[in-house]
Amino acid sequence: MKRLVLVAHAYEAAHLPADTDLVLTGVGMTQAAVATTRAILERCPDPAARAQWQVVNLGSVGALTAGLAGIHEPSAVINRDVDEAVMHQLKLPVHNRIDLAGTGPVLGTGDSFVAGGEARDRLLERCELVDMEGYAIAYACQELGVGLRMIKHVSDAADEAALAWKDLVDVSARALAQAYAAL
Q1: What is the per-residue DSSP string for 87-155?
Q2: Which of 30, 78, 92, 141 is the most exposed place for a label (fewest CB within 10 A)?
Q3: Phi and psi (nearest 5°) for 35?
Q4: Other CB atoms closer than 10 Å to residue 147's CB: what's the count?
Q5: This prediction's pTM
Q6: Is 173 exposed, middle or buried (0-12, 13-18, 19+ CB in 10 A)?
Q7: Does position 159 have pLDDT exceeding 90, yes or no?
Q8: 64: closest CA among 117, 11, 7?
Q9: Which domains, ranges and CATH numbers included, belong to the chain?
Q10: pLDDT at residue 25 tops 90
Q11: Cα–Cα distance, 65 to 72 (Å, whole number)
Q12: Is 90 exceeded by the pLDDT of residue 163?
């Protein structure tokens, strides 16, 4: 199996082995979707050969649920920016959840950085972890027929202290490198 590692920011990849096939997606869903699609198509333009590839998405996350810490492999990822109630009211289909192979908490992906407040409180009804790239990466992998393994490390509680992410992320980078080495 050929592995492609996707990480949003270089800070999160700081401790990965130098020979890792690594792509930095950039922060946010649009950048992650484009970078994931481009990386897969460059490495494997033949759709029939994509079953030989696995994307490993490593990244730091905020925990909405008290007590969540360490490494997690989400069981599903949702697009937390989709207002499901409005979509249902408009009688439009809602396709904002992708089930994953992990057994961990649900990850909610969105383009906003969650750092407390009402937005954080509302998300507790839908997910336990938050990031800014996971759903876009999962969607691109699903559409292109590439397997995905998502490994996330809790860097903060998605509260006001999350604004110190740059100071916290090295702990996540070390834990993610250890988790990757154990695959």
Answers
A1: HHHTT-----EEE-S--EEEEEE-SSPP-SHHHHHHHTTT-SEEESSHHHHHHHHHHHT-EEEEEEEEE
A2: 92
A3: -65, -40
A4: 16
A5: 0.94
A6: buried
A7: no
A8: 117
A9: 2-181 (3.40.50.1580)
A10: yes
A11: 13
A12: no
C-alpha span between 131 and 28 (Å, rounded): 9
Per the structure block, which two tokens stand in for 40?
A: 């897969």
Higher-confidence position of 162 and 73: 73
| Chain segment 97-135, per-residue pLDDT in tens | 999 999 999 999 999 889 888 888 889 889 999 999 999
Structure tokens at 71: 């490494």
CA 68 to chain centre: 16
Closest C-alpha among 6, 54, 27, 176 to residue 109: 27
Please name the helix (run of DSSP H) or strand (run of DSSP E) that holds residue 61, with its range, or none.
Answer: strand 53-63
